[in-house]
TrEMBL record:
This is Dihydroorotase. One of its GO terms (molecular function) is dihydroorotase activity. The keyword Chaperone does not apply. Zn(2+) 1 binds at residues 10, 12, 96, 244. Zn(2+) 2 binds at residues 96, 133, 171. The keyword Methyltransferase does not apply. Keywords: Hydrolase, Metal-binding, Pyrimidine biosynthesis, Zinc. The modification N6-carboxylysine is found at residue 96. Belongs to the metallo-dependent hydrolases superfamily. DHOase family. Class II DHOase subfamily. Binds 2 Zn(2+) ions per subunit. GO terms for biological process: 'de novo' pyrimidine nucleobase biosynthetic process; 'de novo' UMP biosynthetic process. Pathway: Pyrimidine metabolism; UMP biosynthesis via de novo pathway; (S)-dihydroorotate from bicarbonate: step 3/3. It is an enzyme of class 3 (hydrolase).
């Protein structure tokens, strides 16, 4: 089947030698991508964003057409006028909110949500999207409840104060989030990753532990996975593609205290196609991958097309990507058959 070339509305490209080796897997398939700002020194101002964007551009292979869409990491001391200026000058497409301690490099994130109300107010006014890592961290909250508690304790209050703020709940993983997105009208969208669609925690834990399936939010049970399946099978146009491809060195994944993050960029679109096919909803794939997100972000639809072929195969079990500093990155390891593969359409017809 042939679809409009997709966009990835949530990806981690990292920097330096990691950026260099992971970027082509994203730029090969996706026309545009929303770039996460959680570098070890987070992207919190215009000059950092500008520099990071240049670094990304300098690593795009010559035959790839790709546009990085930059985001600003929100901190409690952020400058609301600078963020608004960045949006109006098209340097930032959105701003990202992490509560502290929820995931990789979230330690500069928010502890007291009220501190960022002034910036949320200005974002609501100018139509700038707030991207949310929707989890709350607290010793007393079960890891599997972090997302649903976030909706109740943080998301709903934000909504009461800012009813017209455009929000994307990122990488949703629970039935509660699906229901919440559907219950809202037009100002709330959500991205769904290929791994939350394809796997549940049994895939990570029921035999030997697979650290390459460890991510934040953590994979949930089958009931929640089915709710995500209903979301992509239904008629709500506010669910769309965001891979959350998040590479880490093998030494940070296969170790005592491993990082959350799944590097799925090399096979993300094939994973989505496989899930949509298994659910018998391939007719919804193009809207999810290439239309709904662009419409939510008020971006034009891409002109180019991409072809997917049904071709049963087992991707190479493990291929290591070597970085300059002689460490490795392992793309998502499959023990499942993939039914689909992709090819760029040369003539664009
Ligand atoms: O699994 C994840 N990894 N989830 C996130 O939210 C962040 C990401 C990362 O940056 O490693
Ligand atoms: Zn992410």
């Amino acid at each position: 089947m042939t679809i409009i070339k997709p966009d990835d509305f949530h990806v981690h490209l990292r920097e330096k030698d990691v950026l260099k080796i992971v970027l082509p897997y994203t730029s090969r398939i996706f026309q545009r991508a929303v770039i996460m700002p959680n570098l070890s020194v987070p992207i919190t101002n215009l000059s950092q964003a500008y520099k990071y964007k240049q670094n990304i551009y300098s690593e795009i292979p010559k035959n790839h057409k790709f546009e990085p869409l930059m985001t600003c990491y929100l901190t409690e001391n952020c400058n609301k006028n600078m963020i608004a200026q960045g949006f109006l000058e098209k340097i930032f497409i959105a701003a990202k909110m992490y509560l502290s301690h929820t995931t990789t490099n979230s330690n500069h994130g928010i502890n007291n949500i009220k501190k960022i109300f002034p910036v949320l107010e200005i974002m609501q006014k100018i139509g700038m999207i707030l991207l949310i890592h929707g989890e709350i961290y607290n010793k007393n909250i079960d890891i599997f409840d972090r997302e649903s508690r976030f909706i109740e304790n943080i998301m709903k209050p934000i909504r009461r104060f800012f009813p017209q703020l455009k929000v994307v709940l990122e990488h949703i993983s629970t039935k509660e989030s699906v229901d919440y997105v559907i219950s809202e009208k037009k100002y709330l969208g959500a991205t769904i990753t290929p791994h939350h669609l394809m796997f549940n925690y049994n895939d990570m834990l029921s035999n030997k532990i697979n650290p390459h399936l460890y991510c934040a939010p953590i994979l949930k049970n089958k009931k929640h996975q089915s709710a995500l399946h209903s979301a992509i099978s239904g008629n709500c146009k506010r669910f769309f593609l965001g891979t959350d491809s998040a590479p880490h060195f093998i030494t940070d994944k296969e170790c005592k205290l491993g990082y959350a993050g799944i590097f799925n960029a090399p096979i993300a679109l094939e994973m989505y196609a496989t899930v949509f096919d298994n659910l018998n909803v391939l007719d919804k794939l193009e809207a999810f991958c290439s239309i709904n997100g662009a419409r939510f972000y008020n971006l034009p639809l891409n002109k180019e097309k991409i072809s997917l072929f049904k071709f049963l195969h087992i991707p190479k079990k493990k291929f290591l990507l070597k970085t300059n500093n002689k460490n490795f990155i392992v793309p998502l390891f499959f023990n499942k058959k993939l039914k689909w593969t992709t090819k760029l359409k040369k003539n664009n017809k």
